[in-house]
Amino acid sequence: MPDTVSHQTSAADLWLAAGAALLAAALITHGPPDPDLSVQMQHIADGHGRWALVHWMAAGALFLLSGAGFLAIATNPAIRRSPVLGSAWMVMALGALITISTAVSEATALSVAADSGDLATFTIWWGFASGMANGFLGLALAVALIAYFDLRGTDGRLPGWAAAAGSLFGILSATGWILGMHLGLSIGGPVWLVSSLLMCLWLVWFGIAARIPRSTVIPARDV
């Protein structure tokens, strides 16, 4: 039984690293969102084919991240033992799952509406996509908490400074999202984009740094 658990938990880490790497690749060509809807629509229209491809990549990445969260909860007793850490992984999984709808709508309806200059349709779908994209806010905060647990644990995967950096990246990603999408501040988009990219690269490191077999890892303290 311990060998089986180690293998399944390693699969969660593989899903996490693969999803984060794919999302990082998508973010590199995504560009920061603009709070001005007309500017954002024109930006999509100028490269609607690329925009669609990037968001299909993002949808695949979010699917992998969601699966990683559910797999980690199902197979790692240390995560289930802590209500707060377990909740963080669940929020990451659900946040990624919800945000898939944003990526798909941007790859389809929004790209077509922007390319055809249909502002009414674009506005409706942008409202839907923006609302569902708040799942990414939850994902970012969950990553910040997961990194914090790695920092405070007695046997974390990463060096203390790296765990602290991961927590900071998650907080900055959530902050950038709030500033740009909820407060309409232009600085929010670049802050979100850069910090989200760094957060994804951190998740890749976190995933591949997992110790195998996982049964040798000392569980995090309950909170």
Describe the protein.
The structure is a single chain. The chain is mainly α and 223 residues long. It contains 9 helices and no strands. α5 packs antiparallel against α7 and α7 packs antiparallel against α8.
How would you describe this structure in keywords?
223 residues; mainly alpha; elongated
- First and last CA, distance: 27 Å
Helix/strand structural class: mainly alpha
Major beta-sheet overview: none
Radius of gyration: 18 Å
Mean of all residue-level pLDDT scores: 87
Number of helices: 9
Helix content: over 70%
Taken in chain order, the helices and strands follow as HHHHHHHHH
Low-confidence stretches: 1-8, 212-223
Query: Which outline best applies?
Result: elongated
Tell me the fraction of residues in β-strands, as a range.
under 5%
How many DSSP-defined strands? 0
In short:
This protein is mostly helical and 223 residues long. 81% of the residues lie in helices and 0% in strands.
Which secondary structure elements does this structure contain, and how are they paired or packed?
Elements (H helix, E strand, L loop, with lengths): L1 H27 L8 H10 L1 H28 L1 H5 L1 H34 L2 H14 L1 H19 L7 H23 L5 H21 L15
Helix pairs in contact: 1-3, 1-9, 2-5, 3-5, 5-6, 5-7, 7-8, 8-9
